[in-house]
Amino acid sequence: MTHNRSSQRRPKRQSRTLAAAALVAMMLGLSACVPTPRSESQANASDELDEFYGQKLEYRDCMEFAETESATQFFESETNECTYVDVPMDYSSPADDAMQIAVLRVPAQGDPEQRIGSLVINPGGPGDSGMLIAAALSVRLAGSPLLERFDLIGFDPRGVGASTPAIRCFSDSERDAGEAKTTLLGTSGAWTEEDTSALVDNCAAASGGDKVLAAVGTRDAARDIDVLRAALGDDELTFLGFSYGTRLGAVYAEQFPENVRAMVFDGAIDPRADGEGQRLATFEGLQRSFEQLAAHCAQSADCPLGTDPKFATENFQQLVQPLVQAPVPAGDGRTADFAQVTGGVGVSLYTQEGWDAAIAGLAQLKNEGRADQLLALNDLYTGRGTDGVWSTFLDANFAVNCMDEERRTPEVEADLRERIAAAGPWLDSGESFSGSSRHWLRELACRTHSGVPLRAEHIGAAGNDGHLHHRRPQHSL
Questions:
Q1: Are strands 237-242 and 260-266 parallel, antiparallel or unpaired?
Q2: Residue 450: pLDDT above 90?
Q3: Residue 430 region by backbone torsions, left for phi larger than 0, else alpha for psi between -120 and 50, else beta
Q4: Taking 50 as the threshold, does the pLDDT of residue 468 lie above it?
């Protein structure tokens, strides 16, 4: 195998709320079920894949994998163990280049005789670090029945975080300067054919070439999980997925149904929706959350969105739309534009606990003409540490979505932007989306991606022989 390691490994901190009691009940309850026979997928794999399925893992200090503040904070625990799992870059040619999947293990803390196996976790994204979520959850779950009977396993999927090669499109300084957009959906701006060509050229140059960009789709990431399962010594997979992680888990279950022991999906993505449908549903949900935040804010006489929630969206637009052309100061020599300010509010919409921080940031913007607080919230979501080091979350997110989603023409993309602005008007930048050459992202920037879109009829369609198979789901997930 040929290994291509990147010297830049930067996982991203991402917090999640876990319904621990329900999870423990489901995971432990299923341990009493009669196990299905061991999968024959490894035995039937080609000789070239046997090397991957039969690899032995050697664990070492996780601090070697930590290059961000959040990773350093959580990886330093002595209970954490880390390693790489080798996987083929191209499963149709496994003897060629290999990739390395970074893995963090927190061994089960209970009686070894009561150990069930490994619980493999993916936090979503795509592009989030599974290593970081496993390390963070191990702190919350310390002493719980779950951690007593399962090893917690977090992995950074191919192209993500500490895995190598990792997708990287921009430098930290380019991101700080606001020169690092990978999408125009739900934000401001316009792209030409030259813009998107430069984007993919940058990503390819910094990530190891076009072949790396073409290798990070969800189908291949799901096949990596089966290699990981075997390397961990598990006959069957126990999996926990959040958000996009539910899609990854569903694809795995379609490809390897006989290898599934149990799966828990939190915030499941509808596998029947295409890329446009999923994005519209996301922005509709964010609009509802924004309106709930506005209603909470309106209870205060000094609410920056006003005391009548009916006008909150309009008032918000008046605050943020000028930032398209005139970013405001945000501390430490930085400025904040429309995308960064709305990003800071957006990350606060996922839980009620985040509302007050967003409201305080909007009050600062309205009263002081500054966005220090909202930029800090946006940094938290997009993976920038206080030391100025960025994670590769946004870069990997772009590359994986390029592989998975439909190819869209500039006209279709402009129409989608208009529909998103209608579905989530709090994010309407006030620009016209028609009549300009925009967003060749799906046709040009994804030029190296030869796979079919990952729609419901295709989920899990890439069988173990490398060909496409159309079949009905075999499991109700």
A1: parallel
A2: no
A3: left
A4: no
